[in-house]
Amino acid sequence: MTSRPRKNHLDGLAVGLLLACCLFWGFQQVLVKATVAEVAPVFQAFVRFALATVAVGLWCVWRGIRLGWAQEPAGAARAGLLAGALFAGEFACIYLGLQYTTASRLTVFLYCAPFWVALLLPRFVPGERLAGWQWLGLVGAFVGVAVALGDGLLGHARAALPNAWWGDLLGLAAGLLWALTTVVIRTTALSRVAPAKQLFYQVGVSAAVLPLLSLLLGERWSLDWSAFAWTSLVLQALVGAFASYLAWMWMLAHYPATRISVFAFLTPVFALLFGTLWLGEPVTPGLLGALALVAAGIVLVNRKPAAG
């Protein structure tokens, strides 16, 4: 992707890329959930990011992006390692959480990340501040997530999945870690590093850290998988962790992170659709109400200010 100046709103290119990414990410959560039955969760994440590290590394070489630290701005390497550690923690929470709750529910909680981005990022980047109606949208989406959490603790979902709240909390933790990764990328010397190199830090550190966590959890390591599991891991690595995340990193470098992050609330809608059609996951009134509030929040947060 060629160099473009930063914009203060989402144009057609950004909206198109976001829709494609959100559609796949919603499908990906269901794909991971379906594969957990055959491949241990953290080991699955490790294989995914090991493959993605190779893909991103080859992309960097092809694009002439140096993978060493010598040419980077001061402090970029430390920030890259921190972003990578946060990224690894996020995906450990996601993959472990999918053992306890449905893909659609976990995705709703994962996409709390924009709340944290909106609260934290403007303290460092004044241009990322939200206007009054945008805060209203954020509050509405937050209420939606609270409704979904209450449904897991007290409502219909508890009867079908008594331990769903564990997955819900892991999803919330993953969202916070995702937001912190975004803050690190936007507020440190890492922001002056090519988006592909930023992604290389994240998938590379994950590929180094996640196998250690998998061993600590006593997971079974095996590559004797079905054709479905192999296809799942290849899709997760090359489409999910490589192509879509590379597009996401590029958008973070060229568009406001607050607006991008909140637009990504569409992913739970796609996860709900795929989870219901493929895995037969239950659709509760609380979850539907939560998704409606989240969708309304997207519209408000991404509303352009009136010309004046």
UniProtKB/TrEMBL annotation:
Its main location: membrane. It comes from the Bacteria. InterPro entries: AA-Vitamin_Transporters, EamA_dom, EmrE-like. It is found in: Membrane. Keywords: Membrane, Transmembrane, Transmembrane helix. Residues 14-148, 165-302 form the EamA domain. The chain crosses the membrane at residues 42-62, 74-97, 103-121, 133-153, 165-187, 199-217, 229-248, 260-279, 285-302. It is a multi-pass membrane protein. It holds the Pfam family EamA. Belongs to the EamA transporter family. This is DMT family transporter. It comes from Acidovorax lacteus.
